[in-house]
Design a protein that fits this description.
alpha/beta, Aspartate Aminotransferase, domain 1, binds pyridoxal-5'-phosphate, three-stranded antiparallel β-sheet, 391 residues, 41% helix, 14% strand
Length: 391
């Protein structure tokens, strides 16, 4: 047998920080505001639709590309929101969460020796997926403090072998969004090249303070090379159902499906059917219309509770994470500090920012907190954060 310590295909990958912190929180009874999922339930009418789908027999394999009614809703919604027309038959694919489809896309499109631009800090899936495909990650830091895209740095890092740029807006972990100018600059960057754009928009509708909800699909010049990913888990408070989708031109979708059909093949038939029925209902439409203000109120509750404290922050522009800087009261690095805060009495589990950076690049003295929580949890979180900063 091969010695897997010597021949691992992903030698630098261990247990993720999310699993690590959640296990630590459980062991020490800490309040867990680390992992990115709601502690409240999906809308009742949605649960009813899924139960109904099961009861009426939607229990065998869904079509490989996804439930037809769901794909039709997805295409119609994309056109309403962005003006882009996607064919539900050939350009919409439903998978086991956005992550399974991002993984499939990278395996399908990246060849040995290709370079892939990743903006850091970023979600931890991208780098191992690129490396498994034989590609090389070129990481470009987002701008300090604002975490906006740094177009000069991105241009400077470009090469002839760049085959893909991965964007994530609203960003996990930073909450940063983009504007129309950024969309144009992205189109300028890739124009005339062979690069695909992966636009990870799983927190898509959650833009705060009246910011325009923008997708790569809004920019005509990006459409023929972009894959736009979304997650029902995120927007419907049901991350455990793992239903997501991707929009991409037919030629690209065909390649992606070649991987998807041998990896996941198809996913949760009653969940897809139930989501389709809910999204087409008045309560589904109301849920989506209220989503941004629902999360903005949670963000505001958190940051108002920390106003005037030693925690420093810029309010998250989108998504359901807030980055907090603790440099005003604590010198330890982010991994050491978060472990200590988690394991102390009345502990609190947060995520250090350094695991969102490539190896060797530190995250500074910042942590990520998830505010997709009930108001009581947010209030208790504030109390514990203030205890930590006042110690
Ligand atoms: C940026 C980003 N992309 C993708 C995903 C995965 O989404 P899903 O649960 O639909 O696979 C997550 C989940 O945390 C995420 O934060």
């Amino acid at each position: 047998m091969r010695d897997l310590n010597q021949s691992s295909k992903l030698p630098r990958v261990g247990t993720t920080i999310f699993t690590e912190m959640s296990a630590l929180a459980k062991k020490h009874g800490a309040l867990n505001m680390s992992q990115g999922f709601p502690d409240f339930q999906p809308p009742k009418p949605l649960q009813d639709e899924v139960i109904q789908a099961m009861a009426s027999g939607s229990n065998q394999y869904a079509p490989m590309a996804g439930n037809v009614a769901l794909r039709e809703w997805i295409a119609g919604n994309a056109e309403d929101q962005t003006g882009a027309v996607y064919c539900p038959e050939t350009e919409v694919t439903v998978g086991a969460g956005a992550s399974s489809l991002i993984f499939a896309a990278i395996q399908a499109l990246i060849h040995h020796g290709d370079e892939v631009m990743v903006l850091t800090p970023c979600y931890d899936l991208y780098q191992p997926a690129v490396e498994l495909a034989g590609g090389t990650v070129v990481s470009v830091p987002l701008k300090p403090k604002t975490y906006r895209m740094d177009w000069e740095a991105m241009k400077a890092a470009w090469s002839d072998t760049m085959r893909m740029v991965i964007i994530n807006v609203p960003n996990n972990p930073t909450g940063a969004t983009w504007n129309r100018d950024d969309l144009g600059k992205l189109a300028d960057l890739v124009e005339g090249t062979n690069a695909y754009v992966i636009s990870d928009e799983v927190y898509g509708p959650m833009h705060h303070d009246g910011r325009e909800v923008l997708s790569a699909s809004h920019e005509r010049r990006l459409r023929d090379r972009s894959l736009v990913f979304a997650s029902f888990g995120k927007v419907l408070h049901c991350t455990g159902w793992k239903i997501g989708y991707v929009l991409a031109p037919a030629e690209i979708s065909r390649e992606l499906r070649k991987v998807h059909q041998y990896d996941v093949f198809s996913t949760g038939a009653p969940f897809q059917a139930g989501i389709a029925a809910f999204m087409n209902s008045a309560s589904g439409q109301a849920h989506m219309a209220e989503l941004a203000s629902f999360y903005q109120a949670k963000r505001d509750r958190l940051i108002n509770g920390l106003a005037g404290s030693k925690w420093q922050f810029s309010p998250a522009e989108g998504g359901y994470f807030q980055v907090l800087d603790y440099s005003a009261f604590e010198e330890r690095d982010d991994r050491t500090a978060t472990s200590a805060w988690c394991t102390q009495p009345n502990g609190l589990a947060l995520i250090p920012l350094s695991p969102f950076y490539p190896e060797g690049l530190a995250g500074g003295q910042s942590v990520r907190i998830c505010f997709a929580k009930g108001d009581d949890t947010i209030d208790l979180g504030i109390e514990r954060l203030l205890t930590i900063s006042n110690e």
